[in-house]
Amino acid sequence: MKIGIDIDGVLTDYSKFCLDYGTLYYNVINPNEYDFSLIFGITKEKENIFWDKHIKDYFINTHARNFASEVIKKLISEGNEIYLITSRNFLISKVDDGSGKVEYTKSWLEKNDIPYNKLIFTPHDKVPTIINEKVEIMIEDSPNNIRSISEYIPVIKMNTRYNTDVKGNNIHTSYSWNDIYKIIHMKK
After folding, report:
1. Structural domain count, the chain
2. Do 99 and 150 belong together in one domain?
3. Which of 72, 86, 95, 98 could form a disulfide with 7 if both were Cys (CB 3.0 to 4.6 A apart)?
4. Structural domain harbouring 127
5. Is residue 57 domain-shared with residue 118, that is, in the same domain?
6. Rg of the Cα trace of the chain?
């Protein structure tokens, strides 16, 4: 089975990073939002200033979610192919042209012992990539991506504070990487 996996919010706890670091500067206004500027009720300009200062730390030092490495290794050993599909290279601010994100990402994956068959950087709309690569199931956290991808293939939603209301016939909610493993085996 070809399994697509998002990085930010699925392999990492993007939500925790945003709240931990964002509250150094701002008050939480909308804790259940996905977009950083909406969480803190700030302008995109202020959001860019924040990411200019902290994006490298996020890309390099954020820990992988518990059991992500072990579960992915187990899935590969069972004959599955792992496609990491991320739009993180498109998170570009005024002082960042995006060029370092590929190397930062590869280094982070190696440091966190996350194996994969293919690493794909894509725009925010992942559907064309998923169709082109013939991905059979996707693990995702972004509400918009969950909705759009689930129109084509099953999606395992990594449950977070910002996507709890996203539901559908082709959407399966997970609460941990061990949960993800169980859901994948139920889908086979």
Report:
1. 2
2. yes
3. 86
4. 2-11+64-187
5. no
6. 16
Q: What angle do CA 111, 157, 71 make, to 5 degrees?
A: 40
Amino acid type, 92: I
Q: Which tokens belong to 122?
A: 């894509």
Residue bearing tokens 């599909």: 85
Q: What is the mean pLDDT of residues 107-135?
A: 94
- Pairwise pLDDT comparison (163 vs 105), residue with the higher score: 163
Q: How far apart are CA 111 and CA 146, in angstroms?
A: 28
**3-class secondary structure for the chain?**
CEEEECCCCCCECHHHHHHHHHCCCCCCCCCCCCCHHHHHCCCHHHHHHHHHHHHHHHHHHCCECCCHHHHHHHHHHCCCEEEEEECHHHCCCCCCCCCHHHHHHHHHHHHCCCCCCEEEECCCCCHHHHHHHCCCEEEECCHHHHHHHCCCCCEEEECCCCCCCCCCCCEEEECCHHHHHHHHHHHC
Query: Tens of pLDDT along 31-75?
Result: 999 999 999 999 999 998 998 899 888 988 899 999 999 999 999
Instruction: Tell whether pTM > 0.70.
Output: yes
| pLDDT, position 91 | 54
